[in-house]
Structure formats: structure tokens, C-alpha cells
Amino acid sequence: MVVDYKKLGLVNTREMFKKAVVGGYAIPAFNFNNLEQLQAIVKASSELRSPVIIQVSKGARKYANATLLRYMAEGAVAYAKELGCKHPEIVVHLDHGDSFETCKSCIDSGFSSVMIDGSALPYEENVALTKKVVDYAHQFDVTVEGELGVLAGVEDDVVAEVSHYTKPEEVVDFATRTGCDSLAISIGTSHGAYKFTPEQCTRDPKTGRLVPPPLAFDVLAAIEKKLPGFPIVLHGSSSVPQKYVDIINAHGGKLPNAVGIPEEQLRRAAKSAVCKINIDSDSRLAFTAGVRETFDEHPEYFDPRQYCGKAREYMEELYKEKIKDVLGSDYKLTNID
Ligand code: G3H
Ligand code: 13P
Ligand code: ZN
């Protein structure tokens, strides 16, 4: 028996992406592993009337229990309404699905969107696996994200030392043969809070901070030319905000040389066919900043609501900044009552 996500009040990504591509903004895709992250995501997106993708990775399912996560994500719709957002547009998405079986299990349990990440496979195997997931998912109007090109960094248990940009000459064949609804590409972003080594960066002479190399906007432009209007996804798009890194380091943490994607570059990407931007590490940084600061200032605290409460405040602030100042998805619900 397949749970019908529409009966849960969820939506798939199709209309959302169409509007975002035309409107020149991107939908936030925020990962969550726990209650406080989910609360902050729903609060920020509801108050700003932004469509939102709530995504869970294989690691999140293992950490928090897949069944529990799914019911929590379902609760997001009711919570958004309780917060006064009468017509929320919420997608529950599997991030980096690694097999047909994982995707099927998510589709069967009420996810409205899945990613099948065959990017580490030989091209023909990636096509075959992605098509198999699409054929199953589309029977239930679940949308599918595929990936071409390899990001440097850590994805679940897979570590790639170097990135391989997406080859623009492959995208039409891939999208046509797989029937996928959106495509994650590699143009220089990477997962985690250390996206570039100091050797890959220059230093700002005034602040001494690392300045990363620019994203490959020429590759993005070539992909857009081949697939006009097709929804493009950027993974590894945390900007690693200095303010949270500074709070962490001021309260006993040690994150030397953490560096992300500059926000101006994400703003530029959001105005193009990039219509989904994945952010996980920034939420982890905001959470950790809240916890470290609280413990440092109040060594007597031992109630998780005290330090997780501060962490939740910081995450809500972060999500709101992303929505308003970077992705431009605020007040983009079809019905903003
Ligand atoms: O793409 C990776 C996401 O940040 C998920 O990370 O596998 O540690 O949950 P995770
Ligand atoms: P970050 O590590 O940059 O937050 O990327 C998250 C991501 O791509 C999730 O799939
Ligand atoms: Zn990712």
C-alpha cells in the first residue's frame, strides 16, 4: 500500500519549480534530523510564506528512525497551518537516495519527491537506475531529482576528493532518457563546512579571511542553453556564515578555515534556472553556535530545552535570512493568505 502524499497535504516539486524558474528565485531545500530543525524550518517558511522542501538523507533516517521522521515531516503541514499559514506548500523529499529500494520505500511511505543519486556510477548505469526510479515514482505523481557530475566532499558515506563538473553535452540525453523532473549539477559547490582548501582560495587583505574561487557559471549557462527552462538543483550550497563560525570559535569550538559558497554567487544562481538550493551545514553551524554559547554562558544548565531552544532560535534566524536575502522565495506561495 502506497501512502498518498496529497492526502497528507504535501505537494510535489513540479509547479513549485516551474514558478521558481520563471520568477527568478530558488526554493530552499533544508535537511533535518531532529525536532528543533524541523520546527525552525516550518516556522521560518510559514511566517515568510515561502514554499519549502524538507529533506531527509539516508544518514538522517538512520539517526532519527525513518518511520518517526516521516510522521514528523507529515506534521509539518498541520504545524504550518497552526502558525497561520493557511495554504502551505511543503515537499517532503529524500536527499541522495542511493538505491531503487530506498526511493521506493520513501515513495511508499508518503514522500512527495525523491532524489536518486547515481552520479558516482558509470553514465549508462546512472541513466538506467534513474529511469527505474522515475518509472515507479511517476505512477504516484512523485517527482524525481537525478544527478550528473560529482561534487567534492562527503555525501553520506561516500567521499570524493575532487569534483567533476557536469558535462553540458550529456544533459539532454540524460533528461530525455530518464524522464527526471529536475537535475542536480556540479559547478564547483561541495558538501560540508570546508568546501575549499586554503590553497584553493585567496585571502581578503583586510579581514584575512579565505575567499573561495568562483562557481563555474559558464558551465551553468551551457547547461541552461541545452535544456531551456529545465529545473536545475545545486547541492553543497551552504555559505558557512562567519557569524556562527565566530560564535562557535569564541565558545570553545575549533573550526579553522571553514569556508562556504559566497551568498552573492547563490543569489546569482537563484535568478537562473537553478530552482532548488540545498542547505544543511549552515543549519548545523547555527545549532552548534546556540548550544556552545549557552553552555559557555550557563554552565549550570542541564535542561535540553535551554540549549536546544537557543539553537532553534539561531536556526530560525538563519532560515529566514536564506529565504529573504539569498533565495528570494519569500511570499511566493500561490495563495499567501
Ligand atoms: O548531502 C549531504 C547532506 O548534508 C546530508 O548529510 O548524510 O550527514 O545526513 P548526512
Ligand atoms: P551543504 O553541506 O553545503 O549544506 O550541502 C547540503 C546538501 O547538498 C544536501 O544534499
Ligand atoms: Zn547534497
Automatic annotation (TrEMBL):
Its cofactor is Zn(2+). Keywords: Lyase, Metal-binding, Zinc. The keyword Coiled coil does not apply. One of its GO terms (biological process) is glycolytic process. Binds 2 Zn(2+) ions per subunit. One is catalytic and the other provides a structural contribution. Zn(2+) 2 binds at D117, E147. The active site is at D95 (proton donor). Pfam families: F_bP_aldolase. One of its GO terms (molecular function) is fructose-bisphosphate aldolase activity. Zn(2+) 1 binds at H96, H191, H235. It comes from the Bacteria. The keyword Metal-binding applies. It is an enzyme of class 4 (lyase). Its EC number is 4.1.2.13. PANTHER family: D-TAGATOSE-1,6-BISPHOSPHATE ALDOLASE (PTHR30304), D-TAGATOSE-1,6-BISPHOSPHATE ALDOLASE SUBUNIT GATY-RELATED (PTHR30304:SF0). This is Fructose-bisphosphate aldolase.
